[in-house]
TrEMBL record:
The keyword NAD belongs to this UniProt entry's keyword annotation: no
Record-linked Pfam families: DEAD, Helicase_C, RecG_dom3_C, RecG_wedge
SMART domains: DEXDc, HELICc
Protein name, entry field: Probable DNA 3'-5' helicase RecG
UniProt keyword annotation of Lipid biosynthesis present: no
Lineage: Bacteria, Pseudomonadati, Pseudomonadota, Alphaproteobacteria, Sphingomonadales
Superkingdom assignment: Bacteria
Residues annotated as transmembrane: none
InterPro entries per the UniProt record, alphabetical: DEAD/DEAH_box_helicase_dom, Helicase_ATP-bd, Helicase_C-like, NA-bd_OB-fold, P-loop_NTPase, RecG/Mfd, RecG_dom3_C, RecG_wedge
Domain Helicase ATP-binding: 270-432
GO molecular function: DNA helicase activity; hydrolase activity
Keyword field: ATP-binding, DNA damage, DNA repair, DNA-binding, Helicase, Hydrolase, Nucleotide-binding
All residue ranges annotated as the Helicase C-terminal domain in the record: 454-611
Length: 685
C-alpha cells in the first residue's frame, strides 16, 4: 500500500482545476498523468528578458520587454495568423503575431492606441520584425524584466502559460517527505531537501537542486533492482541438471561459437543451483541467441521440467516457434505455441498439455502467464527482448507455482556498461561478443534525401534481381500522427511505383491480424518490399531481404539504427543499408551517421553514442527512451549512479527489510518513483 502522505501527489491530473477533456491527450503525451508528474516536469531552460527602450536596442532572437502601442489589426484569410501592428517609442513597427483563432483575444489584450508592455522573443519574418505569441502583455512593466521564466517541454495543444499554471498546482501539492538520502552525502553535496529541491528546480537553473532530484531517481532505481535481486536470492527454485541426451540429438547445421559455448556453460552452472537464475544474455542482432536459449531450455527438459519462451510480439513468437520446431525435429521434444489469439479447442488442448506435462516447451506472448494457464512443472523461463518488459514486471510474471523458475533474459540492445547497471542492476551477464563465422560486413551508406530518385532506382534493381527489401520510416512515439501519416504516404508512393502486390505496410496502429498477414506475405516472399515503422516489427528474420533503406536516419538513436541494420546482415549474401538523411544536420548528427558507416560493433556504437550525447544534454535520455529515467541526464547517470548504487547496497545491508527510519523513507522514495514493485517483493518474499 502506498503511504497515505503520497496520495495528493498521486491524484490524477485530469481532476485538477482548468483541465478539460481536450487537455487529456496533450498531458498524456508528456506522461503527466499524476500531480507528482507535474512537479517533476522540469523546465528545459529558463528565459531572462532584457528591458529595451526601443527596437533599435534589441537584436533578432533576443528575449525582450518593450513598451508598444498597437495601431492596426490585420487578419488574414484561411489559416493565416492574426497580426497586431504596433510601434515603439522611436516609431519602429513590429508585428505581434497570433496563430490559430486568437484574433478576438488579441484585440482585447491589445486595444488600438493604448500602450502596453510586451514580453517575448523578437523574430524576423521576411523584412518585418515580429513577436509570435508574446509571453506577456501587461499594462504595467510589472517587473517583467526581472522574471526568470521556466520554459517547459510542450506537446501540441498546450501553451507555456497553461502548462506553467498546472505545474504550479503540482508544486502546491508538495509536502515535506522524510529524508532518504544518507545524511553525510547530503551534507557533503549541500543538496536541498526534497521539496525545496523541486521548488527550486522550477525557479532557475539550480544545479544542486537538479542534482538531488536526479540522485533520488537513481537511488530509487538502484534500490528497487537490489530488492529484486535479494528477493530472488531468498526464493527457492529447482536445481536442474541435464544429462545432455536431448542436446546431443539437436540437429544444428553449424558448430557453436566460443561465446555461445561459454554462455551455455554459464547458464548450466546457474541452473544447477537451487537459487533461481537471474541472468541477462546480451548479444548483438545475429549473434545467435536463439540457440543459447534452446540449449538452456533443453537442460530443463532433460531434468524432467518444462520451459517457456516469452516473446514481445505475436510475430516474433511465431517465428521463434517455427525456428525452434525445426531444430527440435528428431529429438522427441514437444513444443507448442500459445498466443492471445489462440481460442477454442486448439487453445484447450495446449492448456491440457501444459498441465499434464506432455508439452515440454511453450513459446508465446504474455498469454503464457495468464491465470488460466497452469503448468505441471515450469522451471525455466526465457524472455526475449527484456527491455520491453522491465525487471519488475518480469518478476511478477514469473511468480507462477510454488517455486520460482530460473530466468534467462535476452537482449539485443547493446548498451554501455554504466547503463547496464541502471537497467539491470547487478544481474549476471553473459555476453555473445563473437559473431558466427561467414558474416559479411553490411555495406552502409549515408545518402541525402534529395537523391530519393536514385534510392528508388536502387531498390528497383534489387527487387528485379529477385531480392527483397525493408523500407523503414521513423516513428519516434506510437502516438506521433505526423510520422504515421508520413509512413502511409511513403507506402502509397512506393506501392504506386512497384505495384500493389509487391509492397506491404506494417506499423503499430494496424490490427494484429492485418499486421501479421502483411508480415507473412513478406516472409513467404510474396511481397517484395516491406515498409515498416518500428524496430520490433521488423524483428523478423527474412534472409532473402538484404537491402534496407532507413528514412530520416538522423532521428534514430545509434543503437536503434544498429539493431535495424542487423536485420539485413543475416545471411551470407552481401547486404546493403542506405541511411537517408535530411538537410541541415548538426555536427553531432553527422558524426553519428558516419560512425554507422565505420563500425558494426554494437557495443562500440553504444559507447560512442553515449559519448556523443554525453555532457550537458538535458533532454537526451527522456526523448530517446533508452534509460529508465526521466530526471537524470546521461551525464548525471554516469557520475551519480555508482554513488547511488553503493548507497543502496549499504542501506540494504543494514536494513534489508526497510523498516528503520531511513528504510521507511526509502519506501516512500520507491513509491514516488513508481518502483514500488521493489516494496511488494519485500512483503512477498
Ligand atoms: P539473434 O537472436 O541473436 O539475433 P539468431 O539466434 O536469430 O540471432 O541467429 C542469427 C542467425 O545465425 C540464424 O540464422 C542462426 O541460425 C545463425 N547462427 C547461430 N549460431 C550460429 C553459429 N554458431 N554458426 C553459424 N550460424 C549460426
Ligand atoms: Mg533473436
Amino acid at each position: 500500500m502506498r503511504p497515505d502522505r503520497l496520495n495528493p501527489l498521486f491524484a490524477e491530473t485530469a481532476g485538477l482545476k482548468g483541465v478539460g477533456p481536450q487537455m487529456a491527450k496533450p498531458l498524456d503525451k508528456l506522461g503527466l498523468l499524476r500531480v507528482k508528474d507535474l512537479a517533476y516536469h522540469l523546465p528545459d531552460r529558463f528565459v531572462q528578458r532584457r528591458v529595451v527602450a526601443n527596437l533599435d536596442e534589441a537584436t533578432v532572437g533576443e528575449n525582450i520587454v518593450i513598451a508598444l502601442t498597437p495601431n492596426d489589426y490585420r487578419s488574414s484569410a484561411g489559416r493565416g495568423p492574426f497580426r497586431v501592428l504596433a510601434a515603439d517609442a522611436a516609431g519602429n513597427v513590429v508585428s505581434l503575431t497570433f496563430f490559430g483563432r486568437n484574433g478576438g483575444w488579441a484585440k482585447k489584450q491589445l486595444p488600438l492606441g493604448e500602450t502596453r508592455w510586451i514580453a517575448g522573443r523578437l523574430d524576423q519574418y521576411g523584412q518585418m520584425l515580429q513577436i509570435v505569441h508574446p509571453d506577456h502583455v501587461s499594462e504595467e512593466t510589472a517587473g517583467l524584466g526581472q522574471i526568470c521564466e521556466p520554459i517547459y517541454p510542450l506537446s501540441e495543444g498546450l501553451t507555456q502559460g497553461r502548462l506553467g499554471a498546472l505545474v504550479q498546482q503540482g508544486l502546491a501539492a508538495l509536502t515535506d517527505l522524510p529524508e532518504w538520502i544518507e545524511p553525510n552525502l547530503l551534507e557533503r553535496e549541500k543538496w536541498p531537501a526534497w521539496r525545496d529541491a523541486l521548488l527550486a528546480a522550477h525557479e532557475d537553473e539550480n544545479k544542486p537542486a537538479r542534482e538531488r532530484l536526479a540522485y533520488d531517481e537513481l537511488l530509487a532505481n538502484s534500490l528497487a533492482l537490489m530488492l529484486v535481486k535479494n528477493a530472488n536470492r531468498a526464493q527457492r527454485g529447482t536445481p536442474l541438471q541435464g544429462d545432455g541426451r536431448l542436446r546431443a540429438k539437436l540437429s544444428l547445421p553449424f558448430g557453436l561459437t566460443g561465446a555461445q559455448k561459454r554462455s551455455i556453460a554459464e547458464v548450466e552452472g546457474d541452473l544447477a543451483q537451487a537459487a533461481p537464475m537471474l541472468r541477462l544474455l546480451q548479444g548483438d542482432v545475429g549473434s545467435g541467441k536463439t540457440v543459447v536459449a534452446l540449449e538452456s531450455m533443453l537442460i530443463a527438459v532433460e531434468a524432467g521440467a518444462q520451459a517457456a519462451l516469452l516473446a514481445p510480439t505475436e510475430i516474433l513468437a511465431r517465428q521463434h516457434h517455427a525456428t525452434l520446431s525445426k531444430m527440435l525435429s528428431g529429438t522427441g521434444v514437444e513444443i507448442a505455441l500459445l498466443t492471445g489469439r489462440d481460442k477454442g479447442k486448439a487453445r484447450e488442448s495446449i492448456l491440457m498439455g501444459l498441465m499434464d506435462g506432455s508439452i515440454d516447451i511453450v513459446v508465446g506472448t504474455h498469454a503464457i502467464f495468464q491465470d488460466a494457464v497452469s503448468y505441471k512443472h515450469l522451471a525455466m523461463v526465457v524472455i526475449d527482448e527484456q527491455h520491453r518488459f522491465g525487471v519488475g514486471q518480469r518478476l511478477m510474471l514469473t511468480q507462477k507455482g510454488k517455486r520460482t523458475p530460473h530466468c534467462l533474459a535476452m537482449t539485443a540492445t547493446p548498451i554501455p556498461r554504466t547503463l547496464t547497471l541502471a537497467q539491470y542492476g547487478e544481474m549476471e551477464v553473459s555476453k555473445l561478443d563473437e559473431m558466427p563465422p561467414g558474416r559479411q560486413a553490411i555495406d552502409t551508406r549515408v545518402v541525402a534525401i534529395e537523391r530519393m530518385g536514385d534510392v528508388v532506382e536502387a531498390v528497383s534493381r534489387h527487387l528485379a534481381g529477385g531480392g527483397q527489401a525493408y523500407w523503414v520510416c521513423p516513428m519516434v512515439r506510437e502516438s506521433e500522427t505526423d510520422d504515421l501519416a508520413a509512413a502511409e504516404a511513403r507506402y502509397a508512393e512506393l506501392r504506386d511505383h512497384f505495384g500493389e502486390q509487391d509492397v506491404v505496410l506494417v506499423h503499430g496502429q494496424l490490427r494484429p491480424e492485418v499486421k501479421d498477414a502483411a508480415m507473412e506475405r513478406f516472409a513467404r516472399g510474396e511481397a517484395k518490399l516491406l515498409v515498416a515503422t518500428t524496430v520490433i516489427e521488423v524483428g523478423v528474420d527474412v534472409p532473402n531481404s538484404n537491402l534496407m533503406v532507413i528514412e530520416q536516419a538522423e532521428r534514430f538513436g545509434l543503437a536503434q539504427l544498429h539493431q535495424l541494420r542487423g536485420r539485413v546482415g543475416r545471411g551470407t549474401e552481401k547486404s546493403t543499408c542506405l541511411l537517408l538523411r535530411g538537410g541541415g544536420l548538426s555536427e553531432t548528427a553527422r558524426e553519428r551517421l558516419s560512425l554507422m558507416r565505420e563500425t558494426q560493433d554494437g557495443f562500440r556504437l553504444a559507447e560512442e553514442d553515449l559519448r556523443l550525447r554525453g555532457g550537458g544534454e538535458l533532454l537526451g535520455t527522456k526523448q530517446s527512451g533508452d534509460t529508465p529515467f526521466r530526471v537524470a541526464t546521461l551525464e548525471q547517470i554516469q557520475r551519480l549512479l555508482p554513488v547511488a548504487h553503493d548507497d543502496a547496497r549499504l542501506l540494504i545491508e543494514r536494513d534489508g527489510g526497510l523498516t528503520g527510519e531511513r528504510g521507511e523513507a526509502a519506501r516512500v522514495l520507491l513509491y514516488l518513483f513508481e518502483r514500488d514493485w521493489g516494496v511488494q517483493l519485500l512483503r512477498g518474499g
